[in-house]
Every structure is written in C-alpha cells, then in structure tokens.
Specification:
alpha/beta, eleven-stranded parallel β-sheet, 16 helices, 21% strand
Amino acid sequence: MTRLRTYDQVKALKDLTSAEEKLLRECKTGEPTILGTSAPDKPTDATQIRAELLRYLILGGCKDYRPDEIGVRVFGAYITDTLDLSYGTAKGITELRWCQFSSRFNAFDTRLVRLDLSGSCLRDLIAEGARVAGNVFLDDGFFARGAVSLSGAEIGGQLACVGGRFENTGGIALNAQNARVAGNVDLTGMTATGAVRLAGAMIGGQLACDGARFDNKNGLAIGAQKTEVRGAFFLRNALIAEGKFDLASARVGDLVDDLSSWPERGPSGDARLNLNGFVYSRISGTQTDLALRLKWLSLGNGWQGEFHPQPYDQLARVMAEMGHARSRRKVLMRCEQLRNRATLGKLVGPLAGSYGAVLWLADWLHRMFLGYGYEPWRSLSALLFLVAIGWQFAFMAWQEGSFAPNSDVIVASAEWQSLARDAEVANPADVWSTKADPAGLFAAMPHRCWLVRTPPECLQGQGMDYEAFHSLAYAVDLVVPLVTLGQEATWAPSKDRGGWGFGLWWLRWVLTGAGWIVAAFAAAAVTGLIRRD
C-alpha cells in the first residue's frame, strides 16, 4: 500500500471502514476510539483499521489534518498489514489497547511519548533503539506470538509486562539487551516461552519477577549478564521451568527472593544458575537462613564445570554488613573447602593419587584445626581435645600399674627390680612413690617380710622424693610442644603390663605429632601467616 503522507491521500482511500471513519473523527477531537473491550479474532467493518492510516495519524498527520495533541488512542481494533513507525516521531501518546495485529509492529529508532499495547495480540514487536519519553505497557493480557525486541531502547518511565505472554519457542521472547529504563521493569506474572534477554540493561528502579514463569528448553531462560538494577530485584513464587538463568556480573540493590524460585540443577547435575559476579547490597525478608543460602550458592557456584568463589565472597560481605558475623565465617569456610575440592578434582596423571591424598590431608587439618584461618581458636580446642585423650589414657594406665620411672638408674636398681617383679604388687610405681609407713604396712601384712628378701612394704617410699606423677600434667607434656612439666622426663608407660599402658605407649607418638601440627597451625594464625580479614 502507498504510504500516506497527505490528507488528500487519506480521502482518496476507497472503502473506509466504519472503524476508520470513527478513528478519523475522534482523533481530531482527542477522544479515544473505542471499538471493543477485547482483541477481536477477525476483522470486521466495525473493528478493522489499516496500519498505514494508523501510522499517518500517530506521526501527526499533515498540515491539512492534525490529530489532537494527546495522540492516538484506539481500543479493540483489528489492525491489518504491518504497522511501521520506524525512524518516525509520534506527536502524542500511542495507545493501542486490546488490538489484534495481523502482522508485525516495527518501531526502529522511533521517538514515542508513551507506548501502551496492554491486552493486545501481535506477531512481532521490533522497537530496537526506540526512544520513549514515558512508559511502555505490554501487560494486562498482552500476547506476542513472536519476538519482542526493545534492544538498545531508552524508556523514560517504566516497562510493564505484568501478566503478559511472550511466546517465541526456540528464539528470543523478550529482548531488552542494553536497554535503558529510568523506572521499574515489572515482569510480575508474565509467561515467557523462549529467552528473556536483559544483558547490559540499565534499570533505574526495580526489577520484579514475582510469579513469573520462564521456559526455554535448549538455552538461556533469562540472560541478565552485566544488568544493573538500582532498586530491588524481586524473585518470589517464580518458576524457571526449563533453561538457564545467567546473572554473571549483574548488580542489583536489595535481593528479595524465595529460594524455591531459583532453578535447580539439571538431571545430570549441570548448573542452570550462574551467580559468578552477581552483586547485591543486602538480602531483604526472612531468607537469610545460612543453610538455605549455602544451598542457593551450591546451585550457582559453578558454570560450565568451573568453580567460582565470588558468590561466596559476595554473600559473606553482605552477611557481615547485616550483622551476621558468624554466618560470614561459615560461608567463607565453605568456599575454601569447595575451592580445595575443585583443585583436587583437576588432578590427573600417575601422581594424582598420592599428591591428592597429601592435599586432602592438608585441607582436612586446615579446616579442623583453624577453620581455614577464619576460626583460629579451633586450634586451642584441638589441643584441649588431644590433652583430654592423653589425660584419660595416662590416668587409666597409672591406675592399671602400667607406669615406671623414666630413669635408667632407678629401673636398673635392685630395689625397683624387686618391687616390679613381685606378682602381688599391682602398681609398683604407686608403691614406689608413696610416702613410707613401714610400721603400718608390717602390721597389716607381717607374713610378707620373711617370704622375700626385700618385701615391697620395705621398699615403699624409696622414690618418695622422685617427681610425683600427675596424669593431666603428663598429657600436657605429651601434647603441647615446648612446654615441659617434667612428667614425660620422669615417667614412661609400659606396653607389657596392661591394655591402657599398651595403648598409651603407641598413642604418645600420635599425640606428640598431632600436638606439633596443631601448634604450628595456631602459631601461623597468631603471627599472621594464616589470617582472614
């Protein structure tokens, strides 16, 4: 159809429909042209309007016919052919509500005051590079059976897609890449079959996706890489049925979500969520439970097989700013554990097994004894735990009679030998070091003095000036390096007198080695070699 540029061309049109005649009358006076309250299924005389006539009016008519300054407002029309406003400038608002478009709506680099397509149905809306001074409404039952592209558009108000349906299976359903929206982008309750692309968009208000459904089986359901949202990001009661959600390097204000709205991993364990570089200022609402947040991070901490620590650093920072210092440490500890696990997973070659075992042990020790440097006081707890074990074994071994003086002179002496070999003496070390009371002992057991050359009662107290045994001090001597209480130097367990002594005889090497390891970690933490800010 010939492009209409003059009013004479309009008057020369044959077979004007009653809808078009009504439109021409009411555009002149500024009244809305109401042809119905829903999008018509087919064109009729009462609803059909040619796209070229609509274009003529939206762009301001001509000197012989000027629509009212308010612009063009049409409700319930069936618009035939392609409506092409590309590179033009609308002279007022463009309000085409509850309209059925038989073909495309093109608005490349178009200057618009306001665009309202609420409740309308169309095939494609291509408004790349458009400049809209006010709001863009694609809501209230809006339905697109093809691509809707606002890529590079500038919108001075809000972009509202509340309850809209965008269907472009296998393609891009809504494209707002690199768009600039001064107000909110409201996708509440929308349904998108195909990709929703927001990469590089600048949003001055909020991004709301509450109650929305996104579905793109073989690609990105939502691509929001490097998107910037100055206000809050809402994701509650939403569903990402199929496809991936990429938030790489996106920045938002408050994060207002529920964890069930984020996409779970795929059947093969592949990540469907990318949180690498995602930055938010705080978490609003009640979704600050640490266990739930760690699960959330586990959904998006890796992308294409690579582990990314940034999501953990980001959550830790926000937790600290919100006053959850303990949660911050737990998040960073979990990050360190997963980072080391990822390193182990990359080991290949003949030395991977042995080298991996060493790394695994180092990781375990670092986590258990220092909490990766975030909880250095764990080293003190570890030392106390080791001391408690040594104390228990030392106490039971002493009671069992499985200790002897740790002195070659005493052990080789006839007095100790006589006492140690007496089968009726259950605890030679205790008898040796107990204060002498010969009169009382002879009175209690007079029959023993003539049965042996030197009865144990006569030997009691021989070592009373020797270092007294104390099971706790002995354990401290074993475990804590560079601390000498004299117990280990004067007493030694015997592995041949009983089970506790046998156990302590072997365990002392383990306790001493573990004590050195824990103390080394603790010293590194204290001196700053292992420290986390």
